[in-house]
Amino acid sequence: MSVQTLIDSLQRLEMVYNDMLAMADAKKQAIIDNDVDKVVQLLNRESKGMKMIEQLEKERIEATYTFLQSRGVKSQLELTLTELARLVFDPEEKAKLLDVQSRLSSTLHELKQKNDINQQLLAQSLDFIDFSLDMLTGKSSQDEVTYHHPSDRGGSTGRPGLFDTRA
Fold this sequence. Notes:
The chain has about 170 residues and is mainly α. It has helices at about 5-30, 35-70, 80-85, 90-135, 140-145.
């Protein structure tokens, strides 16, 4: 069996990861625009993409084991693509395998960076929401840090904020 089945599997994985990259860009813009419905829609699409990736990973593993068995390797080794390329003797197939490995690695690195940025944007959004709620309710972080006896009401007359919680 040739390595072409494995290369095809890796190319399909690359296409799905490229779709995930496009979704990461769209999610970033939706987070910036504060479009919660769009973020939820993108999360649902990402979930479907992750299921597709899981299925393609199984196919890739199966294609790898079939290729190894065709080369006389009987054990269930988990080799990297670089190590697998050493077992490919056709220079054209070897070049294709290493090329798809390089592209896939680059795509995954870029996806990781975009997901990290989106995670930071979400954390900043949540921090802003907490800050806004604290401003509305009149809470301050100093009140939470310092202990005050409940009967001791004198001394600090803090601003109640825009929203009076006692009403």
